[in-house]
Automatic annotation (TrEMBL):
Superkingdom of the source species: Bacteria
Coiled coil: none
UniProt-recorded name of the protein: Amino acid permease
Major site of localization recorded for this protein: membrane
Pfam families named in the record: AA_permease_2 (PF13520)
Amino acid sequence: MKKHRTDKKISLKDAISIGIGGMVGGGIFAVLGLAVSLAKGGTPIAFLFAGIIALLTAYSYAKLSKKYPENGGTVRFIHQQYGNGIFAGGINNLLWVSYIVMLALYSSAFGSYGAQLISLTGTKEIDVRIFQSSIILIALFINYLSVKLVGEIESIAVVIKLIILIAFIGVGFYGFSVHPENLGQLSPENWESPILLLSGGMVIFVAYEGFELIANSIADLEDKEKNTEKAYFGAVGFVVILYILIAIVTVGALPFEQIANAEDYVLAKAAEPTLGQIGFTIITITALISTFSAINATVLGSGRVNYDIAVDKELPQFFCRQFWGKPVGLIITAILSITLVNLFNLQSISTAGSVGFLLIFSIVNYIGFKQHKELESKKWIHLMASLLCFLAFLTLIIQQFSQNRIGVIASLSIIVFCISLEWIYKKIIPN
């Protein structure tokens, strides 16, 4: 795999910002309403469940990143343990496809919030699919135009969305001080069963997966030995608290029926009771900025992932080709994401994303367990994290099968397809 090293070092603050930016992107705007529909008043607990698994997995990523501080992250960890065989290639292909799923998830959220913003102007309603498809094409064009511009957009977006989300939390808690009765929806009698709370947490796990982007920056991190764990735990810990507070404010702001009706744009709707139409508009614009920056970054990251996988001869060498100075995989990723977002609903896309990343993270945690001596780490943490990810993977499939059978079938089909494709490729073109 080619390394893309620079002489410029990044600080601990920069690394934490990368992790926060990767997590607080489109995920929270896309899946918050879905989480409430599954967990009801227990939604903050669902976010906590998912956050605990993310924190445990961050431990494995931190230890592996210190041992293998090269660009490539998850792809590199899998290669170190399993080489370039069919299993490693299949899982790395699954990582690429999971990025495609995330891109579809973010564009789905952009489409929903974009349609709401247009409706505020009194303009004739526009098909959500137009927003969903066009924003991916715009992001693709920006990626081809300037990678530097992608980074600048991401840096500005991180600051804007964090300021507004923290303000949203502050206003929400002020509302509770004026109307304490609103906290009643968070009481345990309004919680769903433990299995639904866990399932809700796993469906929204995609909102946390972005911390793995830190692995790609460790090579350039100042004082890696001291700062690697701080970068991962600082980013994930902050986002866990942020998500729980957002969930508390959202559940307390709206009746469950209104949340269900506004599932695709619930965060904007939750700002309405306290701030009125202005609050709805501000959060809607914030969602558009956040999801657009997430789409931009994901197009770039996924294009690089399939290029690196092809360099390692786990995808056809066609993916090493360039078009207009960029990997051709950027175009393929965009086309597949547009197809996916227009074929499946939000819940199916979210389920597919969570299933893919839970399986990948279970494997990465297991790699940490197998290499605990070299990593000088606590093997029981790696093992517990691996088991929890795999149990969450199974729980999500079992629970969603009754409610979202198409999403589960699509998720499992993706896994089988990625491994089968690698098997066929290795048979046709042996290394």
